[in-house]
Amino acid sequence: MLPCVVVVWTTLLAEHAAFGHICNGAVGDMTLMARWPRQAFGPIWPAAAIVLLLLIMPIVVAVAYWRIRRRRLHRHHCHRRDSALLCHGVVIVTAMVCACVSGGLHDLVQSTDPIIDVVAENGGAAMVIGTVSVPMTVSALRDADCQTDIRVHGVSVDRIRSPSSITIRVYATGQSCVFRQGADYRVVGTLQRPRFGGAPAWLIVDDASDAVTEVREPAWWRRAGTIMQESFIRVTRRLPDHGQVLVPGLTLGVLGQDVVMTPWSAPAQTDDTTADVDEAYAQRLEDDFKQAGIMHLMAVSGSHFVLASTVTRRLCARFLIPRWATSVGVVVAYMMLATLVYPSDSVLRAAIMGLGGAACLLAGRRTQALSGLNWTVILALLIDPSLAHSYGFALSCTAVYGLVLCGDAVTRFLRGFLPRILADTMAVTIAAQTFALPVQIMMTPQLPALSVPANMLVAPFVAFTTIAGLLALCVSWAVPALGFAFAWIACLGTLPLERCATLIGGSRFSVLPWHEGAKGAMAVAAFELAVPLTIMMVRAMVRVIARGALPWRGPEQDRVAYGGDDDGTPYRARYMERVGAWWRETRTMLFERDVGDVQH
To answer: Topology relative to the membrane, per the entry (predicted)?
Structure first.
């Protein structure tokens, strides 16, 4: 299914670019596409029907051709490989057509949204009703205090109410920062065209006291998750500066200086022991993490879900719980973790992939990482085509692809001349960064030259720090003293991370300038492909030269030399195996020799 992933992702990107180019010659700007569908086709559903019909026709033709070809192959008794190749081709074509349909309908629906119409007319006043999809964070605009995302259900412009279905970015100031994740709000403000970011529109909330009104409160499980998050953040505010910044990052996926405490939480107003995060120190520390190449530690990834799954499965195995109940427990653990952490594209990818593993556990089948990742990416992209343009989703997927495809090969190569612990740690970093580096170059045109040693230095402290942070998250709402104890343990684990980021990230050799955009990403990909090919060519040349320098021996001499008649490749000890054997013999001679064996 890996070719299908490449085809689906490429098709969605090409479709979005072609849609923007055909509409107004502006790729990716949905605000400039607002009038095109109505002018070209009229209402959206006739246009969608026409596009759907045009895209279904190739499937019908491909299926008909496949059936005819199959009959011919059966008559002439052709090889099975031709039939298998034909089936793979049909699957790839079907995936491409599905991607075209999904991406086209998504762009059509978004381009005809009434909010896009208002933004295309240089914005205006509006009243929006929608659901808050993410917790509040510190605003990226200087004129606002907080920001969040709202999934819009309806919009009222000039007293005309219209349905809407897009997600917009909301900026608020002062007393308007009262948004709770999962709640419905009626927000009055000004719609604007976004100046940066991937949101299709911005809503700047008015300064009036009644600009934000809660229509419906969150569900009980969402309220419980928010209370646990708030309690954990209040506990971390009593830690040293580096703990206030890094402990929430490792645990929740959001840095401490980006968290906005909601004013409706009574303890947030009455707790005098908490202190605000030093913004200057936090910003400098964040920059050091980015330059050191370890910023990915501040995002919730698959390691959190693997930890939750491992703990759940071991507890169930300890009490001999049936397999079906264990799979249900794993799903519940995944849902609880996804509720407690801050939502992101990497969390979505890890959750979907984890649910697939739970399904395999229920069916009694062994999980396959590559197959599960392929199906996760395909389903996520077809359901939400906007993920094809998300750098976070791309970084998460490419890093996991690197671990799955190249992790074992890199580990075997490094174990030939490095100790096992160092080889395993370095292999994880190299394999993940090899696939993710082109995407990272498209975000920031810099090469993290010291990211491999930085990741190796912090790797021993990440696991227990994350565990301590999750324990603090689970108990801080009930027993704040115990939660503070776990948070303090996590703070001790983040101290080596802070020192490593400061020393390596603050160095002038930590990053190297590189070409920006797609050209820089292609150059990095070509370089990464050339390095292993060069190593393979050098090793092959060394083997050829070594064989030419050694005297030739025939089959009979080989059998006599190796003491048998079986054919095969002779075993050659690796460098680290020879070093290990030498060390064991030396240690035996120096420390374990019997005194009676000494010659007088």
So the answer is: Multi-pass membrane protein
Sorting pLDDT into bands at 50, 70 and 90, what band is 68? Answer: low
Q: What angle do CA 277, 280, 286 make, to 5 degrees?
A: 85
Q: Is the pLDDT of residue 69 over 90?
A: no
Answer yes or no: is pLDDT of 565 > 60.
Answer: no
CB 216 within 8 A of CB 184: yes
Three-state DSSP state, 259: strand
Provide the CA 180 distance to its chain's centre, in angstroms.
25
DSSP letter assigned to residue 257: G
Among 95, 107, 104, CA closest to 58: 95
pLDDT at 575: 66
DSSP string for residues in 13-63: HHHHHHHHHHHTS-TT-GGGGSSHHHHHTSSHHHHHHHHHHHHHHHHHHHH
CA distance between the termini of the chain: 73
- Long-range contacts, 450-455 (Cβ 8 Å, 24+): 450/292, 450/293, 450/504, 450/507, 450/509, 450/510, 451/292, 451/293, 451/294, 452/293, 452/426, 453/504, 454/292, 454/293, 454/294, 454/500, 454/501, 454/504, 454/505, 455/293, 455/294, 455/425, 455/428, 455/429
Q: State the Cα–Cα distance between residues 85 and 326, nearest whole angstrom.
A: 39
Q: Answer positive or negative: Cα dihedral of 479, 481, 485, 488.
A: positive
